[in-house]
Amino acid sequence: MHHRRPGAQGNPLRRDADRTRARLHAAFMLACLLAVICGAAVGRSAWTDAGRAAAEIARHRNSVTAVTVGDSTYRAGSAPNTRPVPVAPATWRDTSHRVHTETVPVPAATRNGETIRLWVDDQGNATTAPPGRAHIALNAISLGTGASAGIVLAAGAIVRARLCIVDARSGRAWASEWASVEPRWSGRLRPGQGSGDD
Questions:
Q1: Average pLDDT per run of 10 along the chain, which is 198 residues long?
Q2: CA distances from 106 to 14, 89, 90, 134 (A)
Q3: Does the reported pTM lie above 0.85?
Q4: How many alpha carbons fall within 13 Å on the CB side of residue 177?
Q5: CA 66 to chain centre
Q6: What is the pLDDT of residue 66?
Q7: How far is the C-alpha of 112 from the C-alpha of 71, rounded, in Å?
Q8: In Å, how far from its chain's centre is CA 39?
Q9: What residues contact 121, with CB distance under 8 A and at least 6 apart?
Q10: Residue 140 CB coordination number (10 Å)
Q11: If you write DSSP's letter for every residue of 23-50 in order, what string do you get?
Q12: DSSP states of 47-80
């Protein structure tokens, strides 16, 4: 009996379509690995850039103590579906000891004469707090995840389309082979074939 060494020749039962499917699945796995690497790179870059930007913003913002000079009311949010924002008139001194009075966001139910913490810019005008680490991290994770998901979805779509083509070709080849083998296998005569024909 003739023994073949494993791997010396290809599996005779394995068709070209099977090999193509295996290559496509391997390519998809490679694309998934690439997606993880790219997502990590995008997230790291976003973290670094946002961290630098936040540090620059923080250099130009200071936290000061303000005192409300009226009761809080509500102002419509910046977008149509957002909640109203509680605001109150308040007064404070900037780093140059100039007095500012402005209506600013405050905690709900703030009363006249209460002390609040407020972020101001270099000119002493009320502004928002610099971005925190949690905000920067969430943004970096979102961008990295989005990049990874985009690569995986694109690779999946390409591989799926290619697999559909391979399956269609394989189906046509199988139908053609079966049309030539089935009459002999079943003993059924083909159209135009006599009983003495091969």
A1: 47 72 93 96 96 93 91 80 88 89 90 91 90 94 96 95 90 80 69 54
A2: 72, 9, 9, 22
A3: no
A4: 6
A5: 41
A6: 93
A7: 5
A8: 8
A9: 60, 61, 127
A10: 20
A11: HHHHHHHHHHHHHHHHHHHHHHHHHHHH
A12: HHHHHHHHHHHHHT-EEEEEEESS--EEE--SST
Amino acid, res. 32 = C
- Could you give the dihedral angle defined by the CA atoms of residues 171, 175, 177 and 179, in that order, rounded to the nearest 10 degrees? 180
In one-letter notation, the amino acid at residue 21 is R
Beta carbons of 68 and 106 less than 8 angstroms apart: yes
- Rounded to whole angstroms, how far apart are CA atoms 32 and 53? 31
In the chain, DSSP assigns E strands to 62-68, 73-75, 85-93, 99-105, 115-120, 126-127
Which H/E stretch holds residue 176?
helix 133-186
The two tokens of residue 123 are: 């000119």
Q: What is the Cα–Cα distance from 159 to 31, expressed in whole angstroms?
A: 10
Given CA atoms 135, 140, 146, 152 in this order, what sign does their dihedral have? negative
Q: Which residues contact 163 (CB under 8 A, 6 or more apart)?
A: 21, 24
